[in-house]
Design brief:
Elements (H helix, E strand, L loop, with lengths): L5 E5 L2 E5 L12 E6 L2 E6 L5 H8 L8 H25 L1
Length: 90
């Protein structure tokens, strides 16, 4: 048996209230598919590690890795000096 739900306007969004018995949690993401006869809601499929790796493949290819360690050490040294100054100011 299908449940009847409410739809209302909240600012510039349209809100659909779902019965608690359906078990959806606040913040949970749903996929919405609209059709001629209405709409279908289903839980968003979590991506596997392989899918995430495939999507991000090559994202770091343009990075200059030779200077990376030098820049990281310099940044860390700067952060430590700034933290020391903050402690001394207190």
């Amino acid at each position: 048996m299908a449940d009847t739900v409410s739809v209302f306007q909240l600012g510039s969004s349209t809100v659909v209230t779902l019965p608690k018995k359906l078990g959806f949690k606040p913040g949970q993401k749903l996929e919405v598919k609209k059709s001629k006869n209405g709409a279908t809601l289903k839980l968003e499929k979590k991506k596997s590690l392989l899918e995430v790796l495939e999507e991000t493949r090559g994202a770091w290819a343009d990075m200059d890795w030779k200077d990376y360690d030098k820049k990281e050490k310099a940044r860390r040294k700067f952060e430590l000096a700034a933290a020391k100054k903050m402690r001394e100011a207190w």
